[in-house]
Amino acid sequence: MPQQQEPHWGTQQPSSCSAPPRPPASVPPAKQSAKYPCYNCGKTGHFSKNCFARRRSQAPLLIRDNPRQSKKKGPKRDLAPTEGRVHYTHVDQIPEGEPVLASIFLVNEHPTVVLFDSGATHTFISRSYATKHGYHIDNMKAKYHITAPGSPIDTNQIVRHLRLCIGTEDFYVDPVVLPNQGIDIILGMDWMKEHNVLLDITSRIVQIKSSKSGKPADQENTGGFDFPDVFPEELPGLPPDRNVEFAIELVPGTAPVSKRPYRMAPDELKELKTQLQEQLDKGFIRPSSSPWGCPALFVEKKDQGGKRLCVDYRPLNAVTVKNKYPLPHIDILFDQLGGATVFSKIDLRSGTIKLRSEKKTYRRLAFSTRYGLYEYLVMSFGLTNAPAFFMYLMNSVFMNELDKFVVVFIDDILVYSKNEKEHEEHLRIVLSRLREHKLYAKFSKCAFWLKEVAFLGHILSAKGVVVDPKEGGRCAELEAATNCDRDTEFSWFSGLLPPFHQRFLKNSKAYDSINPKNAKFAWSPKCEEAFGTLKKLPTSALFRLNRHHQAV
User: Spans of biased composition, class Basic and acidic residues (predicted)?
Assistant: First the structure.
């Protein structure tokens, strides 16, 4: 019987269904990798744990804890540079309780739905959103393979250097372009790691820490931003039918008033044609054959430049019976703020056209242009009774909230609360009211979760009220009087102050020294000193509000 030879490990051939056998432990590691094949790809020169093909075939490591997956942690592996993953491309896909937050922020000055998603590996942007705003899309040499709901996505496009404004801080992102999705921008783990972002899902707070100092750079509460439809970039069309319609009552015996169109420069005529077509498309105006007609003109927009089409309704206002609906006094509004520490302000978009007009009023709202006669179907800018009608609408919308946690002055809304927990609930109530009544706000002019807010020319805080330095600074330009016109000029000056400031001035010796009763005008050094003191008052005097909602 032949002697059975002991098998030599190196000469044994693996079967087609078995993995290569493990080398003896006594063989040095360098010689092992050079001599024996890899478990994963079958090639020599490396171990299975370092196999490039294996790394490429693995899914990227997720930060999210998914209850449907095993909680056992696997080995930590590096993410291949061309691989990526996004869990949600539409808000409707997000299950309740997932560690994601959606909010609205300004991106290149455009209100944008932004999703903070710890399950996304990169920052992404919707192609439809990028195209809508004219962002330049670059092609990359490398191609991204994105694991997404439904089927994988291959893309090699990117939008570079977008400015994202969160609170008071600006961040720049280079999002990868995905096909059209329901979320404008998704901030993934690449951005969150770079800025040391902490998501507090329970409190709905995004905390961004400085990567250098480790100190909080900004904190943004998203509790009031679940209402993206309240902040559209453009008005959707005619306002809905409401319980109030704009109407014009004429002085008895008034005949129709018609004026020739104003002359415009060539660039204004081009803009006029564009805006007329836009308003025709939205249903705000229609061609008219009315005997009335006031001339159209352009007014420069203060906030973002450009021109706003308006109508010089002064001839119509002169024969209109004035509506006596009261507008609130500023001092009465501020009297309600005692004890408030958190503020948000909301500025409605194109407030005057939120009301439809009565049918018999259409012809009276006609306006003349180089391109014909048109008439408004909604309440327009420049009408004498427009503020009263709109104030009536806003009071009816917020009647249950007024003087509790809401202050309204025409199209400016202030939400105030004693603490952040109350403020989140108050914001939700206010935004729900706006959504219910189809009233839309301009996000770029709104501000939320502030300790100090600029409102109606004043700075409001828990400390009290002071005139906004932007307004009060104009007082420093006043010069000493040389005649009795000083009283008129000083009346303008004191008009910059809140009424409770004015009450103080009326009782001050400094004011009396400038405005002596029944005395001949004489500007003395004493008057000059008193006037200098009063010029500093608007930006230096702080009037406190007590917790009983009274000015002190």
Answer: 76-85
Both tokens of 481, joined, read 């009087």
Exposure b/e, 163-199, CB count within 10 A at least 16 = b: ebebbeeebebebbbbeebebbbbbbbbbbeebebeb
**Strand, coil or helix: 281:** helix
pLDDT (mean) for 257-265: 92
Percent of the chain with pLDDT over 90: 23
- Report the distance separating Cα 356 and Cα 117, nearest Å: 42
The answer to whether residues 258 and 291 touch, using CB atoms and an 8 Å cutoff, is: yes
Q: Considering only CA atoms, which of 227, 179, 262, 485 is closest in space to residue 344?
A: 227
Separation CA 433–CA 427 (nearest Å)? 10
What pTM, to 2 d.p., does this model score?
Answer: 0.61
CA distance from start to end of the chain? 117
Residue 364: pLDDT above 90? yes
Cα(361)–Cα(246) distance, integer angstroms: 8
What are the tokens at 157? Answer: 């496009």
Helices marked H in 398-498: 420-436, 469-472, 485-495
Contact 459, 453 (CB under 8 A): yes
Three-class SS of residue 419? coil
Give CA–CA dist 143/26, Å, rounded: 44
Query: What percent of the chain is helix, strand and coil (3-state, nearest 5)?
Result: 30, 25, 45
> What does the alpha-carbon distance between residue 519 and residue 521 come to, in Å, rounded to a whole number?
6
Mean pLDDT score across all residues of the chain: 74
Rounded Cα distance, 60 and 281, in Å? 48
Q: Is the dihedral of CA 456, 462, 465, 467 positive or negative?
A: negative
CB-CB contact of 364 with 297 (8 Å):
no
What DSSP character marks residue 35? H
- Tell me how far apart the alpha carbons of residues 229 and 244 are, in angstroms, rounded to a whole number: 23
**Token pair of 514 as six digits:** 């400038």
Contact, 156 vs 144, CB < 8 A? yes
- C-alpha 185/C-alpha 51 separation (Å) is 35
What is the per-residue burial (b if ≥16 Cβ within 10 Å, else e) of 146-156?
Answer: bebeeeebebe
Residue 30 parent element (H or E): helix 29-35
